[in-house]
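Thread title: Can someone regenerate the structure for this chain?

I was given the following input by a collaborator and told the matching structure tokens would be attached. They weren't. Posting the sequence so someone can regenerate them.
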Amino acid sequence: YEIVDHQPGTPPLVMSAPREDDLADMVADIENARTLADSVVVYIHWGLRYVPKVISTYQPIIGHAAIDAGADIVVGHGPHVVKGVEVYKDKAIFYSIGNFLTTGRLKHNEPGTQEWNVVWMEHPRDPEVQYGFPEHAKRAMIPRLTFDTGGLATIEVLPTLINDLAQPRVLKASDPGFESHFEYVKWASDTLENDLRADGDVYVVGKARD
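Best answer:
Regenerated them for you:
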């Protein structure tokens, strides 16, 4: 923890790093998978839940190590909200694709939910609402990966919106929410190297290969 402001109660800068033995085990697993498979996709549960945009400092270390070890892409999940997309050495790292099929823990009888002592998240109060996550957790991404004889060929994103009944729906470019969804993902990714761009009904992420 590092103090960033001497006002009492101000949150510190929180820094985290992976355990070296765990990181070495992951790298060994990926290197072994690379000898057995044409393509390697790393799907990982990690990250700071509920909080928009923020990526924990241990995550790029792990993501980059996975790519360096031979992974073609890293797809992260777990925080329940969309996080940024990074292109590292022409390979994509999704720091969180958000939710998909889940109702969460409904909290209709509470005025809100305090997470830790610095983050306040408003949860639905309407008993008809079945999706028990904050409003910004309604955005999600479905990565669409195309493989051919040379491996991972293209990486596209189907932008998805979850309604009050916890039902995900893929957005088309003609939908009113498509542009705002794309702008949110670009905002969540603006501290990361990437070349995310909209192309018809999908987002295209970098180049899978030359």
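The helical segments are 20-36, 58-69, 178-188.
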